[in-house]
Amino acid sequence: MGKREDTMIMAASWAPPGVGGEPSLAAEQIVQSLSHELMSPYCPGRTISSCPSPNARKLEEFILEEASNGKSKEQIEQELVATFGRQKLGSLTSPAVLGFAGGIGLIAAIAIAVLGRRWRRGLAIREHGAGEWAQTGSTPGAGAAAPSDDELDRLSDALDEIEEF
Fold first, then answer.
1. What is the pLDDT of residues 24-50, one digit of tens each?
2. For the chain, N or C: smaller number of CB within 10 Å?
3. Element (H, E) at 82
4. What is the pLDDT of residues 61-111, one digit of tens each?
């Protein structure tokens, strides 16, 4: 931790809650916005709000104190970036995060398309029956025709023998 980072944490941890009365709604909105947008420097891969570290709570207190003192969201974000660095803080709106989310969305869309096609194929088999598939020459499975009545009887007899064990 750098000296400036220590100072920010100390200021946040030693500031009495509600200095000058209750924080304004605008200040609380700034805290909510920044803590959900910026990644936590204490929990890699998590936002400040989802980080369980006590230092993340102190960082939220610091943001609230700065917002209550009249600083804008952009000013506070610039101060945090200057302290922790853009690489460590990151942002949920960074190109890497958006690219990852887009990739996951694309994979999900492909999976839905494949599953939908299989579901429709299953419906067609149930609607038309296996016999109709055999008559048209196209088979839903590995190219096997529908079993005859004799084959079904032999299969039933064989299963009955197995059950008698």
1. 888 889 889 888 888 888 888 888 888
2. C
3. helix 73-84
4. 998 998 898 888 889 888 888 888 776 666 555 566 667 888 899 999 999
**Which helix (H) or strand (E) is 129 found in, with range?**
helix 95-136
8 Å CB contact between 67 and 31: yes
Residue 84, number of CB atoms within 10 A of its CB: 22
Angle subtended at Cα 31 by Cα 30 and Cα 36, rounded to the nearest 5 degrees: 100
CA distance 8 to 128: 71
CATH no. of 3-92: 1.10.8.640
Across-strand partners of 39?
47
Q: What is the pTM of this model?
A: 0.44
